[in-house]
Amino acid sequence: MATHHYDLIISGAGPAGASCAMALEGSGLKIALLDKYEFPRDKICGDFIAAKGVRELISIKPSLKERFEKFPHKVVNRSTQLFVNKMDPIQIDWVLKSYTIKRELFDNELVQSILETGKIDFFPAHAVKDVEVNDQEVSASTAKGDVFKAKMIIGADGAHSPVAKLLAGYKVNRNHYGGSVRAYYSGVENIDPAVNEIYAHKDVLPGYFWLFPISASEANVGVGMQSRYITSKKINLKELFYRFIDQSPVLQSKLGNAQIESKLEGFGLPFYSQKYTVSGNRFLLIGDAASMIDPTNGEGIMPAITSGNMAAQHILRAFEKERFDAGFNEAFSNNLHGRYWKEMRLKSWVVNTFADKNRVLNMMGYLCVKSPFIRRSFKKLL
Ligand SMILES: Cc1cc2nc3c(=O)[nH]c(=O)nc-3n(C[C@H](O)[C@H](O)[C@H](O)COP(=O)(O)OP(=O)(O)OC[C@H]3O[C@@H](n4cnc5c(N)ncnc54)[C@H](O)[C@@H]3O)c2cc1C
């Protein structure tokens, strides 16, 4: 047990916390990056890192471009195949390169790149348990009994963020939350590692089943949907997952001879379908802790990275002006919501209005096949 003094505490070293830390590597600030686990550690996810997220990471730290180009455990995605009910797959081609990388490896690579600079102090296996703010400082106590004191704290500690709960009063709201399960398979057949597969089917509405290759014969496979439907329809996601595979001839041709390599595990998705409190006296929230997941597709890595970068820019201004109060930190909140809220509000409306309607899905599928214009619009939405 010890007391540590820093300028800034970042709680959580996932993509949000790591991006924020990387963006502050040259700042001269004394920063403690805390995580609940030793790295490498798994994070239940689809492992798909969108091109915009890759681009943002490289803009934060240009050396990551070469690092990830050389990184052997990735697949480069160029297309998505959309299977709508029993229709033939719709192929959507992307201009920019996205990656699929097991989160265990991706997150570890980011943390290693931080450690190599020696500019940030990393404390793995230090779970933040309690946080208190007063006029002078913020102090975070860990499960082990260590205390970290600083001018500001950033909550980057994911969907169950203690910082968000303790400082922003965050509570799970099923209307703005998703549930999903995921497993890894080996010996997968008839897949192209450059092509992600999404299955939009009446049995998994409002949500989707995914098969994202992580090599020529391995895949990340999962299903997710909005929590309010899981509860109201009493859906057991694990049962749905296996039943869906059993009943789909297309998935049988890919997974029929495959072996499941991990437990089928679930995790929550806090959707950005309402405006959350993401700042206050001496704190900012980013990534899943700020409920930034896109409600249409479950994408959260890219917003985690961009919000991490935006928080870092705000922190630089806060230390320059010696201002850490709620009033000053509102600028971060305004920037974040200003950048994303309009888009997310529209996406939420689309999801809430159409996502559980199989007829609309069939019509969209039909129009996507027939009309390049609808295909392009749908691509933008994805
Ligand atoms: C099944 C599933 C599939 C998904 N698929 C995709 C996908 O394919 N692509 C995509 O873009 N997004 C996907 N998402 C969303 C994505 O996983 C998250 O949005 C993303 O991980 C958010 O990053 P983060 O850094 O905010 O949080 P996290 O990645 O959750 O990182 C939080 C970090 O905080 C640490 N932590 C937790 N508690 C504490 C504590 N008390 N003290 C200190 N540290 C703590 C954790 O150990 C972790 O390292 C998926 C989510 C789920 C559940």
What does this structure look like?
The chain is built from 12 helices and 19 strands. The longest helix is centred in the last third of the chain and has 29 residues, at 326-354. With 382 residues, it is α/β, with parallel strands linked by helices. The protein is globular and about 60 Å long. It has 2 domains: 3-75 and 97-172 and 271-351, FAD/NAD(P)-binding domain, CATH 3.50.50.60; 175-269 and 356-381, D-Amino Acid Oxidase, Chain A, domain 2, CATH 3.30.9.10. The model has no long low-confidence stretch (mean pLDDT 94). The strands form 3 sheets. Strands 4, 5, 6, 12, 13, 14, 15, 16 and 17 form a 9-stranded mixed sheet that branches. Bound molecules: flavin-adenine dinucleotide. Flavin-adenine dinucleotide (FAD) is lined by residues 11-17, 34-37, 43-48, 127-128, 156-158, 162, 180, 182, 222, 224, 267, 269, 287-289, 293, 298-302, 304.
Which short descriptors sum up this protein?
single chain; 382 residues; alpha/beta; FAD/NAD(P)-binding domain; D-Amino Acid Oxidase, Chain A, domain 2; nine-stranded mixed sheet; six-stranded mixed sheet; 19 strands; 26% strand; globular; binds flavin-adenine dinucleotide
